[in-house]
Design a protein that fits this description.
Structural class of chain B: alpha/beta
Number of strands of chain B: 11
Shape of chain A: globular
CATH topology of the domain at 4-117 and 210-228 in chain B: Peroxisomal Thiolase, Chain A, domain 1
Largest interface: A-B, 36 and 38 residues
Number of helices of chain A: 1
Distance between the termini of chain A: 26 Å
Strand content of chain B: 15-25%
Helix content of chain B: 25-40%
Shape of chain B: globular
CATH class of the domain at 4-117 and 210-228 in chain B: Alpha Beta
Distance between the termini of chain B: 15 Å
Radius of gyration of chain B: 19 Å
Oligomer: heterodimer
Number of domains of chain A: 1
Number of strands of chain A: 8
Strand order of the largest sheet of chain A: 4-5-6-8-7
Order of helices and strands of chain B: EHEHHEHEHHHHEEEHEHEHHHHEE
Largest sheet of chain A: 5 strands, mixed, barrel
Number of helices of chain B: 14
CATH architecture of the domain at 4-117 and 210-228 in chain B: 3-Layer(aba) Sandwich
Structural class of chain A: mainly beta
CATH superfamily of the domain at 4-117 and 210-228 in chain B: Thiolase/Chalcone synthase
Strand content of chain A: 25-35%
Order of helices and strands of chain A: HEEEEEEEE
Helix content of chain A: under 10%
Largest sheet of chain B: 9 strands, mixed
Chain lengths: 147, 387
């Protein structure tokens, strides 16, 4: 299985514009116009000011890897249905690692780690968050070593 | 507020209980608790039920099934929920009911039946226990959330996979001695380290069991407790703390801040310090969770949890015996029952009634630490033998 099978489905919520941003190559947070707090994942409402006066800001730059894991026992709807496979078929499962990076402004971004060998992953390394539009039109976020 | 004591305890066998329904499991535990207290159900004035998940029970009102089967109607009963800490929420709610004067004798029962569905479906249900919009779509599972905690703890403090395995070895050792435990199997560090990877760095033996089971406690007011019991165990302190559902919303992945808050409240209310605790049960849903609990509860300094297990200081005979009932790891984790099972275990320990080989000598003060979700709700309770 490849990471394309997983995607964010957030179009039908108040911060659904987030998905449009990803499709345009932008990872965006919201920022409260009153207290200035930055929210990622984006929020439509500020729980400090109880206002919905929020602006979209683009998250830029690399971030420091806070933690990561590779999940070998996936949940039901991410598994391949073994029963539909031909007899003697070989099943090979190569999950992508996931991780959390912290950007300079403090926002923490979760994403699929792509382009780094699992054995080379280290807490503290720099990774670049990148939106990705999947073949089915859904969007997701990757963390890559950058240029 | 009135003082509240545990005067009766009951526990079903935990395990893959394909022989019994949810209501039948709960009945086993309730029957044992009534016999233990030598009271009749007609004397119980109010009931609190903990079943954590509608998804596992395939029903919207699993608690009503339990209440009906006991023929408890029309007396007051209701269900409380706090994910895997539901059982402790029920104990807390039962305590409130007695402490407030609403009732003198309250039955608290926790039950869960989890093994009717496949592991991938159970993994999905529990994975969605995290942030189902923003984090679950990245394939995160419950082991996945705790793997992120483990990796962060290892990177900051040098905690090792061997130390994680040592937690599993200890809990399997004590689970062998607990007749109610799901699994009776000693394991070695090598077996744990060589078991298959679930969510790197957590392997099979780092993860707790998916179990069926039930537990019950009877809570009584001081006047009634002294009348009906010659060995009441007093609830001396309660704490409850919370943290974000979202893992990206937390500033520090190496601690459960809700546990630190809950422990602070419970220690203050009971007027005791961490070093005065004689025996503890902590929420070892994963081995890393036990190490983090040592630190959050003040049994050692931040970052020294790995060393605590490595030096066997949480075995009986060490500074602070932890999970000598086998823990979630080996006793099993029927999620709604777990918090109530913790209250049963501490009561047994403080009465001096734990099975041979796993009784902490002269235990006078006990503590339970029960985590809901990946740290959303943490309940810490402190119990005393002495009045």
């Amino acid at each position: 299985m490849e990471f394309q099978d997983f995607s964010l489905s957030v179009k039908d919520i108040k911060v659904g514009e987030f998905a449009e941003g990803l499709a345009q190559g932008k990872i965006r947070a919201t920022q409260c116009e009153q207290c200035g707090t930055i929210y990622y994942p984006p929020r439509h409402d500020c729980p400090h000011c109880f206002t919905d006066k929020m602006r979209w800001i683009e998250l830029e730059g690399e971030g420091r890897l806070i933690s990561y894991t590779t999940i070998y026992v996936p949940p039901e709807h991410f598994t391949t249905d073994f029963s539909k496979q031909a007899p003697f078929a070989r099943f090979s499962y190569h999950p992508a690692p996931v991780g959390i990076i912290e950007l300079e402004n403090g926002a923490r971004v979760l994403g699929w780690i792509v382009g780094v060998k699992p054995k080379e992953l280290q807490v503290g390394m720099q990774l670049q968050p990148e939106p990705q539009v999947l073949p089915d039109g859904k969007v997701t976020i990757m963390l890559t070593p950058g240029d | 507020m009135r003082k509240v004591a545990i005067v009766g305890i009951g526990h079903s066998k935990f395990g893959r209980r394909s022989d019994a329904s949810l209501r039948e499991l709960a009945f086993e535990a309730v029957k044992a608790s009534l016999a233990d207290a030598d009271v009749a159900l007609k004397d119980v004035e109010s009931m609190v039920v903990s079943v954590a998940s509608d998804e596992f029970s395939f029903s919207l009102q699993p608690s009503a099934q339990i209440v009906d089967y006991l023929n408890f109607n029309p007396k007051p009963s209701f269900r409380v929920e706090g994910a895997c800490a539901s059982g402790s929420m029920a104990v807390r709610t039962g305590w409130m009911t007695v402490a407030s004067g609403l009732a003198d004798l309250v039955l608290v029962v926790g039950a869960e039946k989890m093994t009717e569905i496949s592991t991938p479906i159970a993994t999905e249900i529990m994975g969605k226990g995290g942030d189902s919009i923003w984090e679950y779509p990245f394939g995160l599972t419950f082991p996945g959330y705790y793997a992120l905690i483990a990796r962060a703890h290892m990177a900051r403090y040098g905690t090792t996979e061997e130390q994680l395995a040592q937690v599993a070895v200890k809990n399997h050792h004590y689970g062998m001695l607990n007749p109610y435990a799901h699994m009776h199997k000693e394991i070695t560090v090598d077996e744990a380290l060589n078991s298959f990877m679930v969510a790197d760095p957590l392997k099979l033996y780092d993860c707790c069991l998916i179990s069926d089971g039930a537990a019950a406690v009877l809570l009584a007011s001081e006047r009634l407790a002294k009348k009906i019991s010659d060995k009441p165990v007093w609830i001396a302190g309660l704490g409850l703390g919370t943290d974000t559902l979202s893992m990206t919303g937390r500033r520090d992945l190496t601690t459960l801040s809700g546990a630190v808050v809950a422990a602070g409240q419970a220690y203050k209310m009971a007027g005791v310090k961490p070093k005065e605790i004689d025996v503890a049960v902590v929420h070892d849903c994963f081995t890393i969770a036990e190490i983090v609990a040592y630190e959050d509860l003040g049994f050692c300094k931040q970052g020294e949890g790995g060393k605590l297990i490595e030096e066997k200081r949480t075995y009986i005979g060490g500074d602070i015996p932890v999970n000598v009932d086998g823990g979630l790891k080996s006793k099993g984790h029927p999620i709604g029952a777990t918090g109530v099972s913790m209250a049963v275990e501490i009561t047994k320990q403080l009465r001096g009634e734990a099975e041979p080989g796993r009784q902490v000598p002269h235990a006078g003060i006990g503590l339970s630490h029960n985590v809901g979700g990946n740290g959303q709700h943490v309940a810490v309770h402190i119990y005393r033998r002495e009045d």
